[in-house]
Q: What sequence folds into this?
């Protein structure tokens, strides 16, 4: 049996580069198609322990008002109490509680996700995309991950029945994370 790949050269503190990262979501709409969106304002950091991934950690804070589905009317509705209540709940947060290496370049990051003041434990499978020194001399890493959550678990319950059966918006939402981060000096 071979041991998993380790990454001692990656050990350190990292800051998420918001201009080269994306935090998004996918929801089924009217039972026939998917609507994609993202949050344009977020920040976060993480600690990588390349020898012992279980000692790694991450935190992310998302500004809910920055929701963007490329439709101003829909975005406005998503900001209301029907969905995210952005005035009352200006942020969505994630704080890791466990990191488990599941393969040579895959990791499960479990943590506390808080939406609308409701906190639930979620696990996000991530894939390590690689590391590089960028043109500015920064050490940069990339990770991609996604997980599905039920929005109703977080108090996001608005819906409308369709004449043909089903509902306007799926309860299941896929959260997507495309993360590029820079190692702190």
A:
């Amino acid at each position: 049996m071979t041991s998993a790949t380790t990454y001692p050269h990656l050990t350190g503190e990292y800051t998420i580069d918001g201009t080269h990262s994306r935090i998004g979501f996918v929801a089924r709409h009217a039972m026939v198609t998917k609507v994609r969106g993202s949050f344009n304002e977020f920040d976060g950091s993480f600690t990588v322990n390349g020898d012992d991934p279980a000692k790694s950690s991450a935190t992310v804070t998302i500004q809910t008002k920055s929701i963007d589905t490329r439709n101003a009317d829909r975005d406005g509705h998503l900001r209301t109490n029907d969905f995210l209540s952005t005035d009352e709940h200006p942020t969505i947060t994630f704080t890791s509680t466990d990191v488990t290496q599941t393969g040579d370049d895959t990791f499960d990051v479990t943590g506390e996700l808080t939406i609308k003041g409701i906190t639930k434990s979620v696990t996000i499978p991530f894939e390590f995309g690689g590391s590089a020194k960028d043109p500015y001399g920064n050490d940069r890493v990339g990770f991609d991950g996604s997980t599905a959550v039920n929005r109703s678990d977080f108090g996001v319950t608005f819906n409308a029945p369709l004449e043909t059966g089903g509902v306007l918006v799926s309860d299941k939402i896929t959260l997507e994370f495309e993360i590029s981060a820079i190692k702190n000096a």
Summary: Residues 72-79 form the longest helix (8 residues). The chain has a mean pLDDT of 94. The helical segments are 72-79. The chain has one domain: 8-183.
